[in-house]
Amino acid sequence: MSVSQERFDSVCARAREAMVLHSTADTLEWDERTGMPIAAGEYRAQQISTLRALVHERRTDPTYGDDLQQLIQECKNEDPHGPVSATAQQLHRDWQRDCKLPTELVERISKATVRGQQTWDAARQADDFSIFEETLGHVIDLKREAGQRLSEGTDRSVYEALLDEYEPDAKVDDIQQVFDDLRTPLVQLIAAIKESPQQPDTSILERTYCIDDQRDFSHFVAEQIGFDFERGRLDETSHPFCTTLGPHDCRILTRYDPHWLPAGLFGTMHEAGHGMYEQGLRPDWFGLPPGSYVSLGIHESQSRLWENQVGRSRPFWEWLYPQTNEAFQSQLDGVSLDTFHFAINTVRPSLIRVEADEATYNLHIIIRFDLEQQLIDGSLKVKDLPEAWNARYQSDLGICPPSDADGVLQDVHWSAGLIGYFPTYTLGNAAAAQLFDAASEQIGDLDELFARGEFRLLLDWLRERIHFDGRCYSGSELIERATGSPLSATHLIKYLKSKLEPLYGIIES
Ligand code: ZN
Q1: From CA 52, how far away is CA 111, in angstroms rounded?
Q2: Cα of 300 to ligand 1 centre, how many Å?
Q3: How close is the Cα of 309 to the center of ligand 1, in Å?
Q4: Any idea what DSSP says for residue 473?
Q5: Are the beta carbons of 234 and 219 closer than 8 angstroms?
Q6: Contact 149, 100 (CB under 8 A)
Q7: Domains of the chain by residue range
Q8: How many CB atoms are located within 10 Å of the residue 161 CB?
Q9: How far is the CA of 375 from the centre of ligand 1 (A)?
Q10: What is the dihedral of CA 453, 457, 462, 468, to 10 degrees?
Q11: Closest CA to 504 of 189, 183, 188
């Protein structure tokens, strides 16, 4: 049997049409989060939910599903990782997933999570978990129900079925292994850093850095590392993100803090990393699996790689520091490159995940990964969550949140029904380190290139190994193909130790 061109074209046309609607809703969301007048909120919510409903209708259409099933049969003799077969398989997979959840459940989840986020916000303001408890319980129950439906007829657990939405095909056991391997060496490294008498002077980053200057500087850095401003924009928002509105339209958003230089600078590099991944996807396949990002973990690997492996490296600053010094003359006068580089690599256990450094960050994630699995399997009751949370912060990070607002209420994710999302952050960190090692081996001396402000070879390598394939391979297959081995914790541990131990004067154990 061969592939019917007519059927393939018709399926693609319908998927692309759904993408037109989807990206229109995203455009409205981008506007909502960048400059929309506050009073426009209610009507904007109507516009977006109408478009999202149309997308859902298109994507669950039964005749579309029949065509996809037929197409899969016809693709039996095709290369499973070629664009035609991958399109059929991945669209069919999306269709099945969308159809497994009845519209009334999707609506109940949507209502519960809108309410969840409002109640979460109120509870956080009041610093009182009990306000949020019942609503969170409701969201967890609904997500468990969704997970049960999604896992039906598969060999996946309920949690794994939820995780699948963000990290397709990922196995909980594999993630657990990576996290277990990370945890002990991380805890040891962080403890050694805490005890070291050699500590950075971060006050130099807290001086007043005028926002206009930061804006110009961040734009310059994003452009130098390879973000294409002819196919994208950089704007400001309160919670930074990256969104793609069309095949040649990627928007990245950052936030500047006049008293904390790293927020805007590394925030921009992080989002530019996400943006360069999106810009590296094939535009002729926009809206179809070969032109779509594969998973959140892989997305995060791209942002972290540019933010950390590149942006916090010594060679990068050998190139950029003279220009930084010129841009922020009064703030950095007399501050040496060594002092600056140590300051931007501060490691210090803290309560808030989004402010955490690249070493302790992963402990924040491991705690959330463990707790959300227990919430879904019922072994942890929502009412006992604050206590469990605080106990883990005490045992893993050696600090105990003095309040719910700085503890269990700090993240919006669970209130929004995002369960199975957190682990993708640390998967991204581990993948970034592993990809960077492979790139160094294959390209040659990256340090020497960075010290000259040359990033093109690294970006091209990522384009070829990760971006180009879109969803034609799974995230774990891409990592294995690019690096020669499955994802492991080894590279991240090695990277953190080799950078941080010398900075903190730690004698290797
Ligand atoms: Zn990110």
Answers
A1: 14
A2: 5
A3: 14
A4: S
A5: yes
A6: yes
A7: 5-163, 172-503
A8: 21
A9: 25
A10: 130
A11: 189
Task: Find the helix packing angle between 41-59 and 103-126, rounded to 10°.
Answer: 150
Q: Which residue has the tokens 């259409």?
A: 61
**Burial grade of 173 (CB within 10 A; 0-12, 13-18, 19 or more):** exposed
Distance CA 353, CA 254 (A): 17
Helix (H, G, I), strand (E, B) or coil at 418: coil
Sign of CA dihedral 449, 450, 455, 460: positive
pLDDT tens readout for residues 127-141 = 999 999 999 999 999
Neighbour count for residue 2 (Cβ, 10 Å): 9
Coil, strand or helix at 113: helix
Q: Looking at the annotation, which residues are catalytic?
A: 271
Question: Which residues contact residue 217 at a Cβ distance below 8 angstroms, ignoring those fewer than 6 apart?
Answer: 265, 324, 327, 328
Distance from Cα 301 to the centre of ligand 1, integer Å? 8
Q: Which two tokens stand for residue 429?
A: 């960190």
Q: What is the CATH number of domain 172-503?
A: 1.10.1370.30
The helix or strand, by DSSP H or E, that contains position 41, with its residue range, turns out to be: helix 41-59
Residue with tokens 């081995």: 485
* Cα(214)–Cα(168) distance, integer angstroms: 37
Residue 421 corresponds to which amino acid?
Answer: Y
Nearest residue to 237 (alpha-carbon basis) of 206, 259, 268? 268
Per-residue tokens: 205? 């980053």
Q: What are phi and psi of 350, to 5 degrees?
A: -140, 170
**End-to-end Cα distance, the chain:** 61
| CB crowding 311-321: b at 16 or more within 10 Å, else e | bbbbbbbbbbb
Closest CA to 373 of 155, 195, 210, 144: 144
**Helix or strand or coil: residue 129?**
coil
Cα 122 to ligand 1 centroid, rounded to whole Å: 26
Beta bridge partners of 234: 252
Average pLDDT, consecutive stretches of 10 residues, N- to C-terminus, the chain (509 residues): 91 97 95 88 87 91 96 94 96 94 88 88 94 96 97 95 96 96 95 95 97 97 98 92 97 96 96 98 98 98 98 98 96 96 96 93 97 97 97 93 94 94 97 98 96 98 98 97 98 98 88
